[in-house]
Write a structure and sequence with these properties.
This protein is an alpha/beta fold. The chain has helices at residues 3-31, 81-94, 109-112, 115-118, 129-141, 214-227, 249-271, 276-282, 297-310, and strands at residues 46-51, 54-58, 64-68, 73-76, 99-103, 122-128, 153-155, 158-163, 166-172, 182-186, 191-193, 199-200, 233-235, 238-239, 246-247. The longest helix has 29 residues, at 3-31.
Length: 312
């Protein structure tokens, strides 16, 4: 090889290496979660990285889960339109790509109202078939069907899709908080979004009108404990002021205990001839589950009385 050919080949090699390094640098910058630390402490929302390419967003409503790897974006739940817009601003700092999937864990407005703000960016919306039916029914009752975005992909028992390195699996365990709650598992990162299957030390909303069942909710959470391993990180929909939305199995067990004590308490009150109104006016905590405090105990009392007296 003559000297001129050697120089040309060397230049091409160095140029190739340089361009490759730029591409790697650009990709690294796009997927670096360090920039999330730049969100001001005074911000109304939090955007936190957990493990792998998965994290969560919280502001107003049910906690949002996200997966961002620089090329692919997946969202779980959407809060409200303003909050979904704030989420999208942060997502676009990490990836310029569109959202491949938005999963709704159930139909409640604080988990689905933001769908409308993400519609222009999203390829597919996914939810359990009962969740979609409940969302449609609730919107029709308010004459607001034209104001919502319904998922176009539904499933009965489960749904799985591969996005980048992540295998994302949705699973339906049965009626609980509603009759359409699904769990979303990012298998590679081993992070599970539970939606409202856990209210961490906060009195839960038990939506009897949408098929909620306390006894089944206990069984659902017991099945979740068995189904996922001890390294799994769980995201829940809501938490009391002094607790976190990122939880472990001990918090799921605590929620099971709350529901069990609620049924036990309800049975005792009904057997004693006490009305739901009497119990609500004199009860601030459920015996045996005193960590659950604050407002909202009346919703639990109403739900347990309805379930125990009507069998529904």
């Amino acid at each position: 090889m003559d000297r001129r050919q050697f120089i040309n080949d060397s230049t091409k090699s160095l140029t190739g290496l340089y361009l490759a390094s730029l591409a790697i640098s650009s990709c690294s910058k796009k997927t670096s979660f360090d920039m999330l630390h730049a969100i001001p402490e005074t911000s109304p929302y939090k955007m936190k990285h957990l493990r792998g390419s998965v994290g969560y967003f919280s502001e107003k409503g049910g906690t949002i889960g996200w997966m961002i790897d620089g090329k692919n974006t997946v969202i779980v739940d959407t809060q409200f339109p303003e909050q979904a817009t704030n989420l999208m601003k942060e997502c676009q700092k990490l990836s310029d790509e569109k959202i491949e999937y938005v999963f709704n864990t159930h139909h409640h407005g604080d988990h689905t109202s933001g769908n409308v703000s993400l519609k222009a960016f999203t390829q597919h919306f996914v939810a359990h078939e009962n969740s979609i039916a409940n969302q449609k029914r609730a919107a029709a009752q308010k004459n607001e069907l034209d104001k919502i975005v319904l998922p176009e992909i539904s499933f009965k028992d489960g749904y799985q899709v591969k996005v980048g390195k992540e295998t994302i699996t949705c699973k339906y365990f049965g009626p609980a908080h509603t009759n359409g709650d699904s769990v979303v598992h990012f298998e590679h990162s081993n992070v599970v979004h539970m939606g409202d299957l856990v209210f961490n030390r906060r009195f839960p909303y038990i939506d009897k009108a949408s098929g909620a069942n306390i006894q089944s909710w206990i069984s659902v959470n017991e099945s979740i404990l068995k189904h996922y391993d001890d390294e799994t990180i769980f995201i829940c929909g809501h938490a009391a002021a002094d607790y976190q939305v990122v939880i472990g199995k001990e918090d799921i067990r605590a929620k099971i205990n709350y529901l069990e004590r609620l049924l036990e308490f309800g049975n005792k009150c009904i057997a004693a001839g006490r009305t739901a109104e009497e119990v609500k006016n004199s009860t601030t905590v459920i015996p045996g589950a005193e960590q659950w405090k604050g407002d909202g105990i009346g919703r639990s009392i109403d739900a347990v009385y309805l379930e125990l007296t009507s069998g529904k």
